[in-house]
Structures are given as C-alpha cells and as structure tokens.
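Worked example (supplementary).
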Amino acid sequence: MKNISKTMLMMVAISAFSIANAARDNIQIVGSSTVYPFATVVAETFGKTTDFRTPVIESTGSGGGMKLFCAGVGPEHPDITNASRRIKSSEFKKCQANGVTDIIEVKVGYDGIVLGNFNQSEPLQVTRKDIFLALAKDVPNPDGSETLIPNPYGTWKDVNSDLPAIRIEVLGPPPTSGTRDAFAELALEGGCKAFDWVKAMRKSNKNAYKAVCHTIREDGAYIESGENDNLIVQKLRENSKALGVFGFSFLDQNSDVIQGSLIDGVAPEFENIADGSYPVSRPLYFYAKKAHIGVIPGIQEYLNAFTAESAWGAEGYLTDKGLIPLPDDERSKFGNDAANLIPMTM
Amino acid sequence: MNQVALIQRGLARRYRSEKRFKAYGLTAIVSGVTFLVFLLGTTFLNGYTALLQTYIAVDVTILDSDFDGGLSQESLSKSDYPGIIKRSLREAFPEVTKRKEKSELYRLISSGAQYDLREKVIDNPELVGQTTTFWLLADDEVDVYMKGRIDPAVPEKNRRLKNRSIAWIEQLRDQGRIERNFNILFFTNGDSREPEQAGILGAVMGSVFTILVTMLLAFPIGVAAAIYLQEFARKNRFTDLIEVNINNLAAVPSIIFGLLGLAIFLNFFHMPRSIPLVGGMVLALMTLPTIIISSRAALGAVPPSIREAALGVGASPVQTVLHHVLPLAMPGMLTGTIIGLAQALGETAPLLVIGMVAFIVDIPGSPMDPGTALPVQIYLWADSPERAFVERTSAAIMVLLLFLIAINGLIVLLRKKFERRW
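After joint prediction of all chains, the assembly is encoded as:
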C-alpha cells in the first residue's frame, strides 16, 4: 500500500512539474462579471467558427482580474482581463513593474445600471438626488444648515413629496461588486452634487466628499442581495414594493417581469443609454497582453472576432445580449488599436 | 398495595409522556420529509421540461451556387450556412418582407442550427441541389413559449417574444412543423451561452476527472496513514498531536483548503488555473481527514483475536495487517471513502478559488484540460440572465442528485457485499 502511494506522490509531483512548463493552447480570460455575458458569447462563436480552442473565461470581478492579469508574463498568467471600468493608474504601474508592459486596451461598449421594480407595480420616476437622499448613509440636514445627519427618510414620499408613500427598500449588490461601485459613483454621487456645499467639499476635502457621496446606508433600507442579479430579479417578483439595482442586460432579458424606473426623466432603454441621455451608464473594457500574442494561439484572432462589426457593431449579436454599442468613431479607434496591436498609454 | 397505587397513579403520566415523545419524533420526521418533498418537487417541476427541446421543421434548399469551390471538403465547410437557413425561412414565410420583421423571423431558429446543418451537409454532400426538410433547433425564447412559460396575455411591450413571433409559432404548430423532442443536446454538449445549446456533459466530465484524481490520491494515502497510525505507530505525545490535528482538519471549512491549493499548487508550483487535476488535489486534501478517521475506526473495530491468532501462527506484523486485518476493515474504509467522495462531489467553494468556475465550452478530455464541476455549473447557470437557464439549472441539480444517489447506492452495495459479522 505504502509503495503505491509513494509512486502516486511521485507521479503527481512529476506531472505537476511538466504541466507547469507546458504551454497552454487555449486563451485564458479573467475579469468583470458585467463583461462576462458578452465575452462568453464571443468566445463561444470564436470556438465554433475557427480551429482554435474555445477561450476559458473566469468571472473574477474587475479588480480581481486586474490583479491576476498584472501578475506577470507567461502561460500561467491570463492573457486577457475584462473590466467594467478603466484600468487604474496604480494597476497600470503594477503591470509595468511585473513586466506586463504592452497592454492593448479595447473599449467594447456601454452598460446601463437600472433601478427597477416588478412591472405590475407603478413605475417610479426619480432623480439622482432622490436616489442619493434615499440611499446615502448620511444626508444633508433638511433644515438647510450645512450639516450632515444620519439618513432619516423612511419612505420615498419623505424624500420627495411627488413620490409614492412606499417604504424605501432597495435590493442591490454587495460592496465587492463593480455594479455597486458604478452605482455609487454615477447615481449617488450624481445626486449628492446637487447640493452645492457638498459639491464644494470635493475641492476642499476629497476624502470626506467621497465618504458622503459613496457610502450607502446600513439600516436595512438597502439590502445586500449577493452578486447574483438573477436572484434580485426573482426577489422583485416576490416583493412588489421593493426596488432592485442590476445591469441593463437583466432588464432586457426579463422585461416581462420587471420594469426600469425613469431616472432624471429618462427611461433605461437601449437608445437612451447609447446616446448617453440615460445618466447611470458606464463603459466596459477588456485588456490584452501583447507579449502573449504569438505564444498562446488565437489571441489576435479573438481580438478580431470581438471587434468585428457582426459582434460589437450597432446590429451585432452582442446587442442581442444587452450590450450598448460604442459610437462609430470610438468603435473605429478601438477596432484599429486591436487590429494593429497598438499598446495603450496612461 | 401502597406502591402499586403509586405506580398506577403515575402510569397515565408516563403513558402521556411516551406519547408526547413519539409525537415529537414523528413531527420531526414529517417536517423533514415535507422540506425534502418541497425541495425535490420544485426542482423537478422546474427542471423536467429541460428534458424536452423544441425543433422547427424547415424545408431547406441547398443550391449548387452556395458552394463556390465545387463540392470540395473545404468549400463544404466554409459555406454560408446561416444564409442558407435565412433564405429557407424567407421561402417558408413569403409574406415577411420588412427588414425588422425578417430579423425577428430569423430569431426563431437557434444560432446553433447552422453548425448542425453544416455537419449534415459535410457528411452527405448529395444533399446539395435538393430540398430537404430539416428539424432545426429552435431559439430558447420559442422553446420557453412552447413550454407555456410565456403568457401571451401580458402586454406585448413587456415580453421578449413579440405577437408576430407568436403568430408564426402558432402557424407552424397548425402545420405540424414544430415539435418537442427529447433534449439529447443537454446530455452531449458542453456549456453554452445560448440556453438551447447548453449541455451538462462538460461539467459531468469535469466532475468525473476531479473525483477520479481525488480518489486516486486520497484513498491510498488515507488508508496508509490510518494503518500506520492505528497498527504500527507508538502511542506518544507526537502521535496524539497528529491525531488531534487530523480530527481538527476534518472540521475546517472547505474554502480554507481552496486557499491552500491556490497558494501551493497555483502560486508556488505554477500549475494552470481551472484544471480538474488541481481541483482533485485540493479536494483530496479536504477528503483525507474523513478517510483517515473512518479507516482508523474500521481498523479499530476488527477484534483483537484476529490479530492475536495471526501473530500466534507466526505471521509477521505486516502480514497480519495486510492478510487479515485490512480485508476485514475494508467495508468500513470504503464506506468512509465514498462518503468523503460524495462530499467532494458536491463541493463548490474550494473550486471557485482555483478557477474552476470558468465558462468552458470544450468538453475536457483529460484532467489537464480546463473544466468545471457539476455544482459549479449549477452556480453559473443560476447566475445567467436568460430565462431558459432556470429550467436547466434545475435539471443540472437533478443530474447531481442522481450522481449522489448512485454513489450512495454503491456504498450500500459494497457494505452488503463485504460485510462480516462476528
């Protein structure tokens, strides 16, 4: 028995060593869960229409993906990372320090963040200021003095007398989520800027400004419901009074169950997000390592497949999945970068 | 006399408490069964429809002019099959002329149908120049409608399937050109982002390879460790410490083993992410304590008389263990091992950490190919926005349950076969 297990151990050690040194023959992609639904469709089409193997895509979140991507060059590190925000300068520096010098940046499109509810209920018409007042941890004192008080509002009517008298109850993603970051940055910060004295804080005390504008209340009005947008959609059906925060693609796929609220008078619809009039939308990116092109087969072809007009174009198959395409000029710029492997600069 | 009266006075109370006790037990079982029935019932009701898949019959005319380079293998594989399907749909619905309506019409057929058609034409080049009726895979929206999960009474703007599409589907239904067949693709395909093309085989193979690696590592190491500790090791502080540690490890949350695997196998040995080999090694670490503890218990349950008899007729300690004690302890060891493996089969958390939660279309052919596992596939599908994935998630749960039932059945069988009584 012991002999067998010894041989076993040795075999594992040997195979571990040889695997570590063998080159991969499939592209490895990590990163944002928001870009994941789009990247997977491209990867699948790519695998079926070319002789290359289908890329393996892991959803790690934008930040986690950057960390893996920037860890170094070599087959044990991923080739491409998806991100629902632009690469940060700190991440870019870390990449450079680890030898990942030439990075090809591709902006793929936009995603809208929706504040939605069950579609048998009344659709809500809110402003970003309402969202800020309803969901921030501390809000400006309603008596007009320039002080902050813990959020006193219980119903939407307390926030804005035009809104219905229903309890504030919002299901949304936890702090690890890129959707939550973007929601805080676009919706909450957009609303807190409506107060001039808070806006002035941005110059005088940036940290305090961020703390006010990005911190979501923790007294039960905002319910963290996990990264699973599908679960949020299902819970909205059960609870017709609650609102949910999720990506546009989930609204698009479940429009028979949920509806999006109008924010600043604009409905979360494809055209409104594409032309930028819907205020809560963000760009999506992916980043590729130039050093891996020619080492891992198929990266260049994958870039071409993603930036083909039939994929990310205005009528491409990614729009069926809820991606909001880039305007023509941006598309031709990033398409050109991808085709000619022009590395980004910061 | 007095005592009898005392006993009789207390008797009614004792009977009552007995009845109460039985009632508590019964309530516990009934509520347990209710939960189980509810769980299995909802899973089954949501999932059984995934066993059926909608197909649409289309008269596909394949023209010679679809192939520029004659009927060579290359031109057969490179032809514009989506175009052929679109043309055939236009011929089937000649009244559809507007651009927007046409693109809606094309969406009735799955984007995967072209690969199926391509394969058929490559296999039978004589189809070129003929009109043949093909049963093409329908889109997931059509499938969901056919399964009665889209209510046509809902206002049109609130559903993804529009009135026009529903009219076409009803027209096809009247002509007998739409049909639900057994969904073989679900059992032969890997993952896909199109629900109608998504299958469970990739995850099943990933699970099989992972469990195989786990078993090959954990069983021999676990049994060897148990034999040494139980039969040969001297009892001292050091072995006591080891024993306490093993018992402790059995209760450590599985995610810790995942992080350990991430640090050792991926970051130190630079093994690739997402492969069943690493998953199996991590799960082997997790399963080892279970196997060691149960194997030691099985060895301890072998009566000392067996050992004494063997030693008495002159067997060496190794012979005693290998020839006499081990075979008798084997059923208990196997039970422990299989319980450990069943636990490993349902494990998700450690696999997430080492990257087995990826979107993988190709079906793994060895433990070195990227793969996922069944519970991870369930997690991935539950997170997908398309409605048709709901039923597939439930169907995947049923497949996982079947696996577990099969493994537990194996335990009972093995125990029955090897069990010996003294």
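Two points are worth noting when inspecting this output. Chain A has a mean pLDDT of 86. The longest helix of chain A spans residues 2-21.
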